[in-house]
Design brief:
Blueprint (H helix, E strand, L loop, with lengths): L19 E2 L5 H10 L5 H13 L12 H10 E2 L3 E8 L5 E7 L4 E8 L6 E4 L3 E3 L14 E4 L2 H15 L3 E6 L9 H12 L11 E5 L3 H9 L5 E5 L5 H7 L8 H10 L8 E7 L7 H10 L5 E7 L13 H13 L3 E4 L13 H6 L19
Parallel strand pairs: 1-2, 6-9, 9-10, 10-11, 11-12, 12-13, 13-14
Antiparallel strand pairs: 3-4, 4-5, 5-6, 7-8
Helix pairs in contact: 4-5, 6-8, 9-10
The structure holds iron/sulfur cluster.
Length: 377
């Protein structure tokens, strides 16, 4: 398999003729635009209120803005850039949201109810498809169609809030795509999501999950975005990891682990390490031992994710005794190791599945959309 193409600096701006996407602008940029229109500063606050507190879908709903200003904004700006195409839910409260972008691309988010809280985790996408080609992942079968723009990322959150009527407990970049391969748009979106004038989420409630794009990890660490990091490991040996994840051909484990060690953590903060368990491939106890050695000294917790078996994915799910033994081995080595079960299989809450079905002529196979902090990347 060819080495995956990584584009770490591809902002994918809207074309010149497309409207300005209001939820893709920082509060500062919005203020500059309002000033350019000759409007007082408080108009920016009103705009932000409508966008992020009331979560309106169109300018005409912003009733305390003058008709003239609404008309001027209407000539150049757009509010909603995503349209909900389909929503499915299961008995446990997991909701799968399929969004249609203005160019017809389909993306997805998954809203997972927490059993122990009245708030939810939202898993969002960062790209249409994914370039990384992990062998156990459905999204990989789509390839990369394009990066998502900041507004398309932010709106997955704002529109999920509008639909559910609630704030999210946590937001995880674990849907379609490799977020660090779309760094500029993802970082702009995080800026907007964490700005108290905009969506106002604490950075500690946001997790960016990567398959191991080493320069992206360093850039995220240096960015002051201050979010949590999750790394999809899946194998503690380079040879095996290269078989499962083509990105490992570019960044070896030594480099990846060094980047994890460099990632700035606050007291009590840990990196999440994700490990999808594939029967007879990476579930031997000796590999648990190797994982323990590899991660020694890194403040981390390990999420073990037994694969969802699926047509088209050439792996099997290990038996529960194997999974428990693997977990126990890591725990015995001093790690916080958890087993994360997939959620929502019956509603096709599978990574890339709904979007793949919605795409013209794509084959439909099942895969694993994983519990919070536990996707296969
Ligand atoms: S597991 Fe993640 S990084 Fe790998 S192909 Fe799927 S979406 Fe991309």
């Amino acid at each position: 398999m060819a080495e995956p193409a990584i584009q770490e600096h591809s902002p994918a701006p809207p074309a010149q003729s497309t409207p300005i996407e209001l939820r893709g602008m920082t509060a500062e940029l919005l203020a500059a635009m309002v000033a350019e229109l000759g409007q007082p500063r408080y108009r920016t606050d009103q705009l932000l209120h409508w966008l992020y507190k009331v979560r309106v879908d169109r300018l005409s709903a912003m009733t305390n803005l003058s008709l003239k200003l609404r008309a001027e904004l209407g000539e150049r700006c757009q509010v909603d850039v995503l349209a909900l195409e389909r929503e499915t839910a299961d008995a446990a409260g997991t909701r799968k949201l399929l969004w249609r972008c203005s160019d017809g691309a389909a993306i997805e988010s998954v809203l997972m109810a927490q059993s122990d809280a009245d708030r939810s985790t939202l898993c969002i996408s960062s790209q249409v498809g994914c370039p990384l080609g992990c062998t156990f992942c459905l999204t990989a079968t789509m390839g990369l169609r394009r990066h998502l723009r900041a507004a398309e990322i932010v709106e997955q959150v704002v529109l999920a809030e509008r639909l559910s009527g609630e704030r999210m407990q946590t937001i995880v970049f674990m849907g379609m795509g490799e977020p660090l391969a779309n760094f500029d748009n993802v970082s702009r979106a995080i800026e907007i999501l964490t700005d108290t004038h905009c969506a106002g989420y604490s950075p500690r409630r946001i997790t960016v999950s990567t398959a191991g794009v080493v320069p992206g990890i360093d850039k995220l660490g240096a960015s002051m975005l201050d979010v949590n990091l999750a790394v999809s490991l899946n194998a503690p040996l380079d040879d095996l990891r290269r078989e499962l994840m083509p990105i490992a051909r570019r960044y070896e484990l030594a480099e990846l682990v060094a980047a994890m060690r460099r990632y700035p953590l606050k007291p009590g903060q840990r990196i999440t390490v994700e490990y999808v368990l594939l029967a007879g491939v990476n579930d031997e106890l000796s590999l648990a031992d190797q994982t323990a050695r590899l991660l020694r000294g890194i403040a981390c917790k390990i999420n073990l994710i037994p694969l969802n078996e699926a047509e088209g994915i050439p792996f099997r799910r290990p038996g529960s005794a194997v999974v428990l033994a693997f977990q126990e081995r890591l725990r015995a080595a001093g790690y916080h190791a958890f087993i994360r079960e997939s959620k929502g299989r019956e509603i096709r809450a599978a990574c890339g599945q709904l979007a793949t079905e919605a795409g013209a002529g794509r084959r439909v196979i099942a895969a694993s959309m994983l519990a919070p902090g536990s996707r296969g990347d």
